[in-house]
Design goal:
CATH class of the largest domain: Alpha Beta
Distance between the termini: 49 Å
Radius of gyration: 19 Å
Largest sheet: 7 strands, mixed
Helix content: 40-55%
CATH topology of the largest domain: Rossmann fold
CATH architecture of the largest domain: 3-Layer(aba) Sandwich
Number of helices: 13
Structural class: alpha/beta
Shape: globular
Length: about 325
């Protein structure tokens, strides 16, 4: 039985990053071609056990993200299934050229794992926030961009990505994530998961913003507003069929992400809707284009309205405005 299944039966939730590490270790024990390559991030990537159990399948590069991606691409070109693990803020900034050229354009199916993503590093400030990664990765050809919302999505993403023959960028935060309840417990890259159904508004989240959207749906129900909640775990390619269905059946759409409002999930959704003549009341919630406040992840979320009450109020304002 998988670790996330054991946890679910016991009513235990873990940080997605912990599920990533335990899942990777499990599949790597059965497949000696799976390698973890880290940039002085074995501890922060929860890979200490992996290194102890599989010392021949982990490579420590040190604080050298460009080398990390280059080594990962080289191993991948020789048939290894490589997971390159590094803080998202550095992986997708310092090593962007290597990601673009050595991984994507060269079609080396490296799995780039961005840890402590978004504002997970909180009080360390803007240098350690990754609020640009969706935007830059969306602009590069030949890479799938994923942000799992809970332990189930995380385990499935890692299992499936390990067998995929194309590059991936998968980002994880540090917060313990409750398992989401849903009718259809399936995970397919490029297909959003409908967690809750409602007719008034669609709340589309990704990663760690899906749970506060689900909490907001509960608050809205008390006001007589029925909300659909979607985990759009794959930012690229986007589930446009689901978006078209939501536009057809819901009165308004609100997106929420732990990313800049520029270039991420919200703008991807808006682009599809407008280019396909779906003119709906619409709002993007995320981090505005400003010097981000410093604090814990929860404090930053609360400040920018990425919370149950903040999403509830934004929904009420959106519906009242139109």
């Amino acid at each position: 039985m998988s670790q996330e299944s054991v946890n679910a039966q016991a009513g235990i939730s873990l940080a997605n990053l912990e599920i990533f590490a335990s899942t990777l270790e499990t599949i790597a024990k059965a497949d000696k071609d799976i390698y973890a390559v880290t940039s002085d991030s074995r501890g922060s990537g929860k890979l200490v056990s992996f290194g102890q159990q599989l010392p021949e399948q982990i490579i420590e590069i040190g604080i050298a993200e460009q080398n990390l991606v280059g080594v990962a691409a080289g191993l991948s070109s020789m048939g290894k299934k490589v997971f390159a693990v590094s803080p998202a803020c550095f992986l997708t900034a310092r090593a962007l050229e290597q990601i673009k050229n050595d991984v994507c354009y060269s079609n080396n199916p490296v799995k780039l794992i961005g840890i402590s993503a978004g504002v997970s590093y909180g009080a360390l400030g803007s240098t350690h926030h990754s609020l640009h990664d969706f935007a830059v990765m969306r602009a590069i050809h030949n890479i799938t961009v994923v942000a799992p919302a809970d332990n189930f999505e995380t385990a499935e993403a890692i299992r499936q990505a390990a067998q995929a023959a194309q590059p991936f960028y998968i980002r994880f935060g540090k917060k313990v994530m409750p398992l989401l309840s849903e009718e259809d417990k399936t995970f397919v890259f490029g297909k959003g998961r409908v967690i809750r159904k409602g007719r008034h508004i669609a709340l589309i989240g990704t990663g760690e913003t899906v749970y506060p959207a689900l909490e907001a749906a509960g608050l809205l129900q008390q006001a007589g507003i029925e909300a659909t909640v979607v985990s759009m775990h794959t930012i690229k390619p986007l589930d446009t069929a689901l978006l078209a269905s939501l536009a057809q059946h819901c009165e308004a759409i609100l997106t929420v992400e732990e990313h800049s409002v520029n270039g991420g999930l919200g703008e991807a959704v808006a682009s599809f809707l407008l280019q396909n003549q779906w003119h709906k009341p619409f709002k993007i919630m995320g981090i505005p284009d400003e010097y981000t406040v410093t604090g814990s992840q929860n404090e930053i979320f609360t400040h920018y309205g990425i919370s149950a009450s903040g999403i509830e109020q934004a929904t009420l304002q959106l519906l009242q405005k139109y």
